[in-house]
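**Sequence, structure tokens**
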Amino acid sequence: MSWNEPGGDKKDPWSGRNEKDNPPDLDEVIRSLQDKLGGIFGGGKRGDSSNGPSMQSIGFLAAGALVLWGLSGFYTVDEGTRGIVTRFGAYVATTQPGLNWHIPAPIEQVQVINVEQQRFIEVGYRSGGGQAMGSVPKEAMMLTKDENIVDVRLAVQYQVKDAKDYAFNVLDPASTLKQVTESVQRGVIGRSDMDFVLTEGRSEIVAAIKTEIQSVMDAYKTGILITSVNLQDAQPPEQVQGSFEDAIKAREDKQRLINEAEAYSNDVVPKARGAASRIVQESEAYKEKVIAQANGDVSRFSQLLAEYKKAPAVTKQRMYIEAMEQVLGKSNNVLVDVKSGGSIMYLPLDKLVNKAGEDAVSAPVPTHEPVVAPTPQAKEIRNDIRASSRERDVRGR
């Protein structure tokens, strides 16, 4: 008996399964689903067109759909961002961070813009994701005031300060900022000399570029705030870099020699000025001294003249004695007038004193020897010297 004949076991000879275990037919599944949906909407079974869906069920479904549509209008704005709400494409409001609601799409839509993110553009080079910088000659090469070409590479950092202006006033804010930066950069470099750009003028150039870029972006109402402008590199073209380095070395040598000369000048000039000031002061002091001495001599001579007119003889004698005193006072010789004889004894005291000093230095240590008494002639000479000294003192008084 074959497997599909009446009375057979109805087994599939290829799969070995019973037909009763096969999955239900797809048409039957669809018909069953349609019957269930018809029951929900209040209709009868399939093929029964006399009963349609009830109005109450349609209302429930509409209300549920409306609630779900309204709930889809809730959205969250993170910290550091702003939400731009548009109604059919027109600006409505700017929402702050937190939970907000708008009329769901397609009536209103929300665009979230990060206002604290630091964005940047590169002009004259491309960093290449952390790799070595590659120059872009079309953007980097520019002409200076003295008609030289320099390779300038600039990086500009910015952030959004007005989300509304950033979203609506400019189609592509980053591209606009880059074009403005190139224009401003060429203008500032074109007003400066090459040496100023490559050496001491970098900070001034960066400040001028930042100020002018911000001014232009504010005029365009782009809603962009320039936070920093960094001059990555400024150098002459590769073809003349060797010559330019030689020129820089020569300039540095010149400046070094100038500094050394100034240091030497600062050391010598103050000393010369001090010496000149000292000589001038000494001259002034000598002048004052001579004038004072001359005034004193005049005053003394005037007083002496007055005394001379009163007593000429006494004044002459006094002047003679004072002159002899000044002359003989500087001499170490002593003249002794001995009364017993007509000769004058001459005693060279300076030689005697010097000889006595030499004898004292070269003399041996004294021993306990008997002292010899002076002779009568030595005593007489000593007494005459004392008497002469007393007489001279009396005359001086």
In short: Residues 74-114 form one domain. Residues 174 and 361 are 108 Å apart (CA to CA). Residues 365-375 have pLDDT under 50 and may be disordered.
